[in-house]
Fold these 4 entries.
Entry 1:
Amino acid sequence: MALVLPPNVTEKTFQKALDAFAGVLGRQWVLATDEDRGTYMDIYAPGDADAHIPSAAVGPQSAEEIQAIVRIANEYKIPLWPISRGKNLGYGAAAPRMTGTVVLDLGRMKRIIEVNEKFGYCLIEPGVGFFDLFNHLQENKIPLWMSVPANAWGSVVGNALERGYGYTPYGDNTRNICGMEVVLPNGELLRTGTGAMSNSPCWQLFKYGYGPSWDQLFVQSNFGIVTKLGMWLMPEPEATLGLNIQLPNPDDVGWAVDALAPLRMNGVLQQSPSIGNSLRVAASQSQRSQWYQGDGAMPDDVLRQVLNKFNLGWWGIALRLYGYDEVNEAHARIIKDAFAKYTKQEFQVVKWHRGDPIENSGAGVPSTNALQIVNWRGGRGGHIGFSPVLPPTSEHVLKQFHSTKKRYEEIGIDYYGSFTLLDRHTTNVNMMIYDRDDAAMTAKVRALFKVLVADAAKEGYSEYRTHLTFMDDVAHTFDFNNHALLRLNETVKDALDPNGILAPGKQGIWPKAFRGRQA
Amino acid sequence: MNSKMDFGPVGCIARLLAIAVMGGCIGAGIGVARSAAAQGKAAGDSAQKLEEGKKLFHERCGYCHLAGGTGTFMLGQRLGKDRALLEARTDLSVEYIKKITRVGINSMPPHTRIEVPDSELDLIAAFLTRPASARGNAGSSGGAHE
């Protein structure tokens, strides 16, 4: 990919900045060839990868090197886009929001600084992947469990900072954050919580510190670069009990949410189950052309044949109870009674006890197998997710499900969705899978995405996270009092980052220097 | 299949490149007279580099390319199960491995020089293109993700 300079920067100034970066990092860790730029592009972009081209990438190995890079960036007005491991797949991967931005790749910062078994936490750097931490816990026989997302190729820190989630009782990954070290846009180093004391033994034990608590300021934001993160880990339980069930009909998702939401809120169910349509299983095991080669979305009768072949219902649910046998059994009875009001189907029960193989336990075991779905349409596959947050009731869920499915069918792609139940909301992930070699298809997907954002906004639903291309669209749905929240974000941005060097445009927050660049 | 690049059609080229490249890479049998001690040391160095390459392959590529991994699954779908496991393949070339690592293929994303530096990629490619004499049991097993 040929060089595209940052806005308002000459090639001479850009080269001076690269030389200065190399002076700090060594030439080896300043990546600026055409091939290098290509490696930071959004692999799964829905036809618009050229809107997010980096000019270069730099790879620091310490907070001190990041401070030096940030100071140089301020001097030469070079925008930086921090990434942890660059695996934000479906949301833009390693690519920056604004073309010409230099990627600040923290992938070399891979230290697991501390794992504390007694208090159940770790302190890690951004380059530590889910596999790295999992292997560390396993190899050292540390009885702490992780929460991992469906595709676990990425960074533990990066995922938590983007509000990713897993499926254990510690599944809300952002909630597990306890203490950060951050480089601010002016190069200053900060520690949050009680880490702001120089000698606190509670940095990873107490989240709030004293006075305002700033951790959320650095989540899904462009206000600082997180260089260390404390994360709470779950003590290995004595036993788990799994309850799996297939629901045969599309509208079954409504009563399932009504049955589960009160149990999720009162703590009978402590993990966040995903009610997913079974196309996701079919898409990970087969290709669409094996079942259907006609135009338009796969017809319902063909989908039914696919589901029958895999012995699946329209939706699948895997619930998991964690703790002690007696308590799990009691909670399982409560869940079964709640479901018995709606269905005569029985749960498949899976039991695990400490010492059994971890694969069947319900622990977070990293895998990349979820990526197999991108091969559903063939060609160079891609995927993007539209994920609004709804109240967990059948009324909201069914309306949103039918509305989204109809929109998918209008452009001829197959509905692929799930509803994950958290304490008091459900996150509705709608995956769009496409063939990137089919320009017409990707154009339709891009258009559909904007329609879905608008449809959801009419109902008062926002996304919990989105792809680079749609960050402005989603930010603008937060419209109370003439977008007062966005104006606050911009005020904070300009105060912390007057030169606008840190991740311009992330989450729709543009610094003064680049405001108005929304595409 | 509508792929622009595929392990399949390039296989023949890959085999030719492998023959051309492997001699220099592995450092064995290029007809230069050397002392027995030097030859022994060279063989030892080569074996060590292959071990390093194997370890790096498992660490950097094993997320997807060991038995049961998503890359193995997808290659199996496209090329057949006998060509699904990369470390058991004998039709890959150093150049091809390096290129695919940097540009990606189908649903496989490209890998940056920070994730896999050139020096590591050299060792990984040498391991994946090791000669038959260096194969044996080691390196052809899959195993779980490491």
Entry 2:
Amino acid sequence: MNILILGATSAIAQETAKYWAQEGANLFLVARDKEKLAAVASDLQVRGASQVVEYPLDLGHIDVHQQLIQVAIHNLGDLDVAFVAYGTLSDQATCTQSVTETLKEFTVNCTSVISLLTLLANHFEQQKKGCLAVITSVAGDRGRQSNYVYGAAKGAVSIFLQGLRNRLTPFGVTVLTLKPGFVDTPMTAHIPKNPLFANPKSVGKRIYKAVKNQEDVVYIPSFWRPIMTMITHIPERFFKRLEL
Amino acid sequence: MNAMNQYQSWGQYPQSSPHSIQPVFWQNDPIDFDSPNQTYLPYAYGRSYGDSCLNNEGTLLDVSSLKRMLSFSEDTGVFRCEAGVTFSDILQVVVPKGWFLPVTPGTQHISVGGAIANDVHGKNHHRAGTFGIHVREFELLRSTGERFICSKNHNAGFFSATIGGLGLTGVILWAEFQLIPIWGPWIETERTRFHHLSEFFSLSAQADQHSEYTVAWIDCFAGKKSQGRGIFITGNHQHKDTSTPSSITPRRTVSVPFKAPSFLLNRHSLRLCNTLYFHLSFRSPTGSIEPFDTFFYPLDRLLHWNRLYGSRGFLQYQCVVPPPNQKAGIAELLDHIRRSRQGSFLAVLKQFGSMSSPGLLSFPREGTTLALDFPNRGEDTLNLLRILDDIVCECSGAVYPAKDARMSAQHFRSYFPNWEVFAPLIDPKFSSSFWRRVADSDLPSEAPSIPPTHGSLQTPQHDELSMGISS
């Protein structure tokens, strides 16, 4: 298994990658912080990965994506999985006051992902195999006043992935949209925990299974699917008055 | 649901509410040690039984995210990992490569940091000593932001204070230790029934010669004539040419879903369990081969088994009685426990060896150790444990802080005479509920009168259950 992980130091990516490491996968890890990346790489190496390459990079810099993908493919050969796991949880109040912040959040959570997906999709189409797995969010299913910048960015990626899935299915390529709800990670450390929070370990396991089973759209944990179905079906004329 | 509620200890007693939780996600993340009037204590999985892992009204540094393995040499068995890595994770990686933990307690769900901070021991203490003996080095973060690589030769003061130091000397970020080589995941084990405490001592003297692992389960309800009857269990890692089953069927774990109603655990049901175990445990052959996890971690099959004790929780008591008093001392302890009718499922006896740990506050020392649970029945239980403490103290023994929720400051200081060497090495911003109880509180100048409970003893000292921050 040759696996490219973008955002390898995210808590969810770490937990998912452990399963691949145990299977002896070749891993190409990309993340911004060099020291954290080194810790994650050594962990995956000890847990059984055959080969681990560290590639420190800020994925918000779109102009280096092309080169990154080339280096990854050069190192790994064919890609069995490309896993996009990076992102930031935007602070809605800050974004509301600042165009710069809003666009910055969009760059990280949406346009940079779309840039990578565009490049990767073309590669997967040629390969005629593999899995493109991307973490979006339940927040992308419907816009709400409390986090619509984050939600819109994730929602755009989800729709982009729908299109890719439709395009790449005939080529035998799996496009997997992963929609976690609240996960207890550094990204949500400042939010008081409630029973809806999932732990990264179980989320990682679910993602590993979803990749293995070549699934399409996965809510994690699964109880989010009925919840989001309900939420998306509330008529807008009521929904707009809710404080969500 | 209050997220703080999960930060309790394994015995669920005393209940604690930390002022705040600060997760530590990365070794290099700055930790905020600057909140005024706050004390700090590392916390991972809360497997200490009493209050040594609690910091009531203080800050807990949750290090359970520090769980990355850093290096493992398959040639030498030297293993390095972050402090929140569990023994279970380590075994999963190293056993298939022919290595095993040098020392392991009865659960694999503990962190490496906790194993060092409590200087844990296992069924091989007579051969291998404590976990701390096998630690080569670790990195300690102090509240000043300074980081110290500690080993026998570097920062030796912090090294010996941190091993068994109950998390009070700073945050252990990572540790490196030596594994032991094995031929496979199987343990050759033998069980022998014994009918009296005296037999335990003779069995143990023999078995410790040829077995890596020895332990005895005893029936703490059995009467005078059969006092200390039980099952003696030995184990050795499989040999090169041991014939073993071709594969291990993965164990099924069962979870206790909620806290049991307290009436389920009464002296009749507990007594019955003990009697049944004594008589029925020989359905299986006396010599057999079993996977390491059923041998070392029988209770791990029952996730959250602490919930069986209901919402009042339970108290563990583990003491060691050194020679020459061990036979008489253990007999006297068992006598008191039997007469109190408060004992529980699992009472364990083991002979500790003479190998000494570098840890200043390390609990194990040569002698006989007795461990058992007591359902929390309030004052009755606390009174009994005070009596046991007096006996242990009189025998120059010690009680295990990792399992304690109530020992008095006086007892602590007599069990751990090194505490005064240890105290200056504590991080000034670190504290725990346990430490405030046993070390920060001033001893009463005159012992208040508690009715004498034990004929040959001096007046027991006042035992204060201080739960808050002593300011």
Entry 3:
Amino acid sequence: MNKAEQNMNAVQIENVSKSFGSTHAVADVSFSVARGEIFGLLGPNGAGKTTLIRIMLDIFKPDRGQVAILGGPMTEEKFNRIGYMPEDRGLYQNITLERCLVYLASLKGVPPAEAKQRLKIYLERFDLAAHKKKKVKELSKGMQQKAQVICTLLHEPELILVDEPFSGLDPVNTQMIKDLIREMRGRGATILMSTHMMRQVEELCDRIILVSQGQAVLYGNLNEIRRQFSGHAVLIRTAGELPRIPGVKQALPQNNEIKLTLEEGTSPQEVLRELIRQDVLLEKFEIAIPSLDEIFIRVVKKGGA
Amino acid sequence: MSKIWLVAAQEYKRQVLTKKFFLVLFIFPAFFLLMFAIVYLIVRMENRNIPVGYVDHSGFLKNPLSAPKQEDAPDSSQLLPLIPFQKEQEAQGALEEGKIQCYYILPPDYPENKKVGLVYFKPPGQNATRQFWNFLQMNFLRSLPPDKASRAVADASLVIRWPEGGVGGGREFSDKASLNMFLPFIVGFLFIIILFISSGTFIGALVEEKGNRTIEILMTSLTPGKLITGKIIGVIAVSLTQISFWIFCMLLLAFMGGLLLGVNLLQNLSLDPGVVLSLFAIALPSYILAAGLMTVVGVSVAEPHEAQQSVFLFIFPVWITFWLTKPIIENPNGPLALVLSFFPLTSLSAFCIRIGFSRVPVWQVILALLILCLSAAGAMALAGRVFRLGMLRYGKRLSLKDIFPRRSHE
């Protein structure tokens, strides 16, 4: 990687559009992924996430727009610096796990002997060492999923694109993958993750883009986005009964607290003033930061309405 | 190692290290060996090495000359003893005791009528009949010097030689080496079998990779062009392994049959290296053409079984050519033969038929090669285009409109 490349974003997408026949899969989408960050590519099913990933990987050519990967257009040399885990897992079923992974790593430019050495470490870490001589089809779904993760990382890529990395994994292995993603970022890799699991996105991602019906509907720093969407609810804890507060659409008990969902146009400050005016004994007043799930549903529903 | 060679090596190992490959590899030689063994055993069973008796009432064989050796006998070193008997009862007794397999009776009027009687429990072997027949012929020709009589009695040999510059181009056909005429045909037929097998295998590999989604990993590791090229090299290497082994088995079989077992038909085998080279040169671009077209078909269809069925598209032209074998042989340089030789999908099969029965002009081989190479290049270019579009379409057919859109974005 040269200095100019280092200063550039790992991924730079500008006004990209792609249609299949009369279907507009991606429409004028722009975003960038900085080097070393974990970026979330979110969206409902059929939103165009996989098409975007395939455009980034030069599998599909965009109808319009510009794509720059690792500082410029995709080249065969760059394939060796990218790790991709597709949503539909793909490994040769009728050959042994070791042969399959060594071959796929060698296609990424790793000499077979070195790939074998690296694989040994990964297989032990993922509890697959005892299964390396088994045919891939003989492995359980979870094992194949772990093997796919190894396949994505074995050549130590700079840019990792993972489509639904947690599907099919139990909590223990989910945690393992999360740790691995953090570890890869620690090594300087850039990770673009497409997933429906918002909890994992909240835990891992620095920035996100939410795509709906082929269009970018939300894009930016995750905390900023959550703050943008806060203000529609407050969490309170009171010693006594809660009177009726104007501007509150719904009051839902949550553990020892009450979540007040505010009507459009009502601010948390107005609610606080009203609570004080009514002499409500407040033990806690907090602006509720919405979960990514809530934001997702709200934005996608709004987009679909 | 270049990624092309990595793909080729992987494709080769993936196909060769399977039970199916070894089954196919050995099934053809095993079939031929079995056929050969059956024929050999039938001949051996018919030939019994037990003496033959005769009773001569005519005096024709009073001081007989012995029969010459039979050159086409499986074991030409062995001559059956011919035992004369004075009386039929003696010969009958020897037959009943198993000392002779049969006896011939020459009646008193034999020199005039040329009719003999034959007595046996089990029909005598071919070697016995032929030897006694030669023995009689030899004695009919006793007025000639013995060496001339032997040559006259020995089997005649038919040799056909085409004139230089004619259809056969100076080639020679001998009935003692009749297999030589069919050898190019047999070798060509092997190339065609391998074309079918490798086409089926190639499309199977593509469909498998599309089905198990490995293709997405591959497409982010190397370009479609390199991927397809590597696969084709791998498939051709598999094909060459098969055909080399089969040719080796044929030679081994011929050696065993000709030298060890003394089968005359297999002793004079020869195959013109130029013929093999021409067939190989035609076969190579034919394989690439088939692989390119198979790629187009394999990635365009929605379901794996549709891809397998499409192999029929390539079998059909070859089948048509073989169906037209008779008119092609009758006029090996006629318009029909030429059209089929220059049409890319029938080139290989047409040359297989023609090359055994005629001397194909070099310019025709070169022109056919040129057409095949251009077709193969076109098929590969189309394959590369379709590959990108079709391999990631799961459960959807690729239409011509998809392949050739009005407005290209690529």
Entry 4:
Amino acid sequence: MLGSFAVLRKQSLLGDAISHAALPGIAVAFLITGAKDSNTLLLGALISGLLGAFWIRSIITKTHLKSDTALGLILSLFFGVGMLLLTFIQKQPNANQAGLDKYLFGQAATLLERDVWFMAIVTGVCLVTLLLFWKEFKLLLFDADYTKTLGFNIKFLDILITSFIVVAIILGLQTVGVVLMSAMLLAPAAAARQWTNSLAIMVGLAATFGAFSGIIGTGISASYPNLSTGPVIVLVASVFVLVSFVFSPSRGLLFKEIRFRKNRNDLKLHKTLSFMYDIAKTHDDIGHPHAIKILNNFHGYTKKSLHKLEEENLIILKGGNWSLTEEGFFKAKNLYNQHIDAND
Amino acid sequence: MTSAQIEIQLIASLVAVACAIPGVFLVLRKMALISDAISHAILPGIVVGFFITHDLSSPLLIILAAFTGILTVFLVEFIQKTGLVKEDTAIGLIFPALFSIGVILIAQNANDVHLDIDAVLLGELAFAPFDRLELFGMDVGPKSLWVIGTILMITLSLLIAFFKELKVSTFDVGLASALGFSPVLLHYGLMTVASITTVGAFDAVGAILVVALTIAPAATAYLLTKDLKKMLFLSVVIGVFSAISGYWLAHVLDASIAGSIASVLGVVFLIVFLFAPSTGMISVAYKQQRQKIEVLLLTFLLHLKNHTEHKERHVNHLGEHINWKRSQAKSVLELALKNNMIVIDSQVVSLTEKGNVFTENAINYITDHSEEAIEEMKKEFFLFRG
């Protein structure tokens, strides 16, 4: 759901960066408390995730480095620090440390009931805030300058959104793991984007897609042995994206291709027709027959297109000859004035 | 230092150089995240290669992995070209999907062999010297040293051969195609190099360090210079420096080498980010502050020029009229005095001859909308800057 905002804000890969950036937080939280309590670890992850997110923001705004560089930078550097700390922890004489890295690769199966409740509550809070600030978020998303002139506190809104994305990511980490988290954030939103131009519908759709890929993915992974949940969920989500890309009515590749072909054929027909018109107008009799041979590919001529023209009653085919009908003549005559219409 | 230590440092440095060179171009072309995507997406390639050869060190593995890398780039390009989503979204969609396939393949078929995600992703530099290459029965050094060395040689020779083309196509795609270079070809060439480097390097140092070594030195260098050659040189230096000092940090802490190299890279970047002479946070903040005072000064001078009556030009009046804070007003007045723009005569401020000329010029420039010219003018008139 929050992914919709990330996608529209061109911060798609934020998810990837934040999920990596959470690692040092987990390690530090463990170093400080020495216990593997999931709440403190989450808190640590949250703090370092936020730190990463805001550092990314400041790199983008304060220097000429682009967002991709900033993201990649923070991602790899934070993760490196995290690894350093993790290996450092492993050398410590503390039996508790095993399995810390499991956090990062995610295991939905290890979730406790308590964790699920916790997630549900956080999701609820996100939802309520989203609804509360819906108008503001929408504005900020599409026209930040306008939002500013209206007197909204852009910085606050921005921080709010970013924080929510970070919270969502950190929570999701436990389920699907670092690498796949970015897909969970992105894929439903990207799929939803193809079906609608309205933000509200897009957010709703994204949530639905996300939920479904979660359910289906878990189902598939449970019914086969040796199939980890996270990757399956991601693959299911990717399938959603693929289907959306191809079959979405207005933006989908399939319909685009169909429209493209249709337009091209229409144009070819018009080309043929206007060529016929040029010949026919030199004769007194519009219906004077001409040989088909004088048409060639260059004039957009194919057998199919001729038949199409005949079907539309624009020409009459007789033997090896064609002749324009009254209707065809007028249509061709007006063709040049109607080129705009011809394109739809 | 033992020979193993020297070898590790040598490998790390070579990896750093090999990554830094394509890294510079990736950062400049705003495709830095491709390296991240490639490093994750090659997993299925490696897995499939492993199934075919059952040998983790076979060259087929590297070839297949590099191929998957290029496939990733191709898919990303394809999705992006459809115009359905932005490039970053395309990257974010492709690589997790490929990675998932890799993970599932491993889980399904290779449970009993030593090929697990941690090993693939994290890598361990410390073991690199133990995996030795033997030629004609002779020990010629660690295998990864040779792999990386070869890749580096190829990258370097390609860089020298196509430097001009790369430069043009990076900064001006239109010009490059007009001159008859194929930007597409160069693009895929660069991606192939990046992909091969990633694959070759990550065998030795792990995926994350590859990403860190690709992006961080280039980004740091970009903050320091805008000259391509200097940037290349600087990023190589930063990469090698971090590799070697990272190794020693790891040695002291007894922790992961890759992690500590990345940490050193992070520290270097942070320092540059804060203190770089022209682009660092501190110098930017300083410059903004200066700009602010100078704008205030200009406003103040215009105000003086507009008013002849004493009341409007009284020192105490500034607070009421232009609504400045006391400290702000004071620093503006001081700056103006230092630059001989104004004189204060019994609490009444008046423009000097120089101040008058400056203000007049400034008005002209402002009404011309040629705001850049004001910077030039400031250089001419100001003895001291704000």
